[in-house]
Amino acid sequence: MDCTSRFSRSYKVNDAGCWEWRRLTSNGYARFFYDGAVGYGHRYSWEQQHGLIPPGLELDHLCRNRGCVNPGHLALVTHRENIQRGREARIYCKRGHDMPPAGLCMVCYREGQQRFRDSHPGYRQRYAN
User: Fold this and answer.
1) Residue 66 and residue 113 in one domain
2) Most confident of the ranges 36-50, 75-89, 108-122
3) How much of the chain, in percent, has pLDDT values that exceed 70?
4) Residue 129: pLDDT band by 50, 70, 90 thresholds?
5) Tell me, what's the pLDDT at 21?
6) Are 12 and 60 part of one and the same domain?
7) Structural domain boundaries enclosing 35
8) Local structure of 110: helix, strand or coil
9) Are 83 and 103 in contact (CB under 8 A)?
10) How far from chain centre, in Å, is Cα 75?
11) Are residues 120 and 83 part of one domain?
12) How many of the other CB atoms lie within 10 Å of CB of 26?
């Protein structure tokens, strides 16, 4: 069986149009054996439709679904832009608090400050002046 037919049988289209991977994943990303090695399914999907990914660029999941292998839901971006888009899309921090547009959860920040003060009781006295 060739790669294209194996690939086509490995995902299911959901209501949002995402081609959700139904097989092996790594941190939520589709894993797929092609060209003699295991690679990412979204990269395979992109390369089949658009060609090789240029050096210095990577794929961004516009749908924010790591398991999606739909080439229409992918875009070529720099690493910096990919990270920035991911941060902008977050509405909750990793602990579930609302995330402000600035990207810093103030609840977690204040809790971290309090943990530091609790574990370093003499800190304020030593550096007050």
Assistant:
1) no
2) 36-50
3) 93
4) low
5) 95
6) yes
7) 3-89
8) helix
9) no
10) 13
11) no
12) 10
d(CA 43, CA 8): 14
Name the 3-class secondary structure at 19.
strand
Token pair belonging to 51? 């060609």
pTM for the model stands at: 0.70
Residue 48 and residue 97 in one domain: no
Structure tokens at 1: 């069986």
- Type of residue found at 122: G
Residues 57 and 74 in one domain: yes
Round to whole Å and give the CA distance between 129 and 124.
9
Q: Token pair of 75, please?
A: 């875009």
At residue 54, the pLDDT reads 97
Cβ-Cβ contacts under 8 Å for 92 (sequence gap 6 or more) = 98, 99
Distances (CA, A) of 110 to 9, 53, 97: 48, 42, 12
CATH number at 41 reads 3.90.75
pLDDT of residue 84: 87
* Structural domains counted in the chain: 2
Residue 45 and residue 18 share a domain: yes
> Is the separation of the CB atoms in 75 and 59 below 8 Å?
yes
